[in-house]
Amino acid sequence: AKEAGRNTYQYYSQDALAKIQRKLEIEHALLGAIEREEFTLAYQPLMHAENDQPPAIEALLRWHRPGIGYCSPAEFIPIAEKCGEIVRIGDWVLAEACRQAAAWDAAGLEFDRVAVNVSAVQLRDRGFAERVIDICHAHGWPPQRLELELTESALIRDTDVLRHCFDVLERHGVPLAVDDFGTGFSNLHYLNRFPVGRLKIDRSFVQGMLHDAGTAEVTQAIVHLGHALGMKVVAEGVETEQEEAMLRRQGCDEIQGYLYSRPLAPRDLALWLKQGLQT
Ligand code: C2E
Ligand code: CA
Ligand code: CA
Ligand code: CA
User: How far apart are CA 97 and CA 45, in angstroms?
Assistant: First the structure.
């Protein structure tokens, strides 16, 4: 028994050690990943639920490491947030999304806006909002067509830096969306405090709504709440026509998910948009 106990202890500590080593290794590899051009953006459309107005597009970060392969943002973004590298990476994402959007627009592709995910750490960085506007101007992309997707955790604290940030963004008409809505905090004061125009219902609710009446009531409540506050409501992670039908019935404004398209490489998204123009 003693023997087994010792082995178990060793097993767990090695496991923990391996996790720490992987984190350190990723942190190290993140430094210079921009310069080595290891990042790309994938783009996923958001469709209007009611009409066939042009879709919006969300930019999602992809990291391909030569000789190692793909690393998921769910794994490396939290590490980039901890070491602060997310600020530089986030600026790269904003610039690349604006550059690509302006190029597509110039090529005659029709879409409503490009949405970029922004972490709480980026928002807290002094001068963030000014940089967003500068990046838009540098790439000839109107700030009114760049949406920032923020998580609830980025919005709970009401600091001077945050207030200034939202003042600047609002002055330039940058739309804001709350991502993963419903998973974070029950205190919803921030919805009135900050100029949020859109709520994105988290994928976990969409996945549960067909099988669980309580979950379907949550999505319906989010749609009502958003509309009562004058906001639009989006559902993410929609994979089936049944989910889509229920969300439409509930009054959801926009729908995003594998049902319409996975996140696509830029060239494939451009083709996808062109097909939409023909039909
Ligand atoms: P998110 O912003 O909530 O993005 C949605 C995630 O769900 C994406 O995963 C997307 O590929 C995936 N997805 C979309 N439709 C479906 C569907 O129908 N079914 C399923 N099962 N999944 C779907 P991805 O690209 O791996 O990104 C994961 C998370 O990483 C994002 O969640 C976002 O929080 C973060 N992230 C991605 N790119 C960036 C970025 O540029 N900056 C920051 N700060 N975070 C990012
Ligand atoms: Ca998002
Ligand atoms: Ca989500
Ligand atoms: Ca998210």
Answer: 14
Identify which of 225, 217, 264 has the alpha carbon closest to the alpha carbon of residue 62. 264
Mutate to test the pocket of ligand 1, among 34, 44, 57, 60 (most ligand atoms within 8 A of CB): 60
ipTM field: 0.98
**Which residues line ligand 1 at a C-beta cut-off of 6 Å?**
44, 60-61, 72-74, 77, 90, 93, 117-119, 179-180, 203, 236-239, 257-258, 263
Per DSSP, the residues of 139-208 read: TT--GGGEEEEEEGGGTS---HHHHHHHHHHHHTT--EEEEEETSS-S--THHHHS---EEEE-HHHHHH
Per-residue pLDDT reduced to its tens digit, 111-148? 999 999 999 999 999 999 999 999 999 999 999 999 99
pTM of the model: 0.94
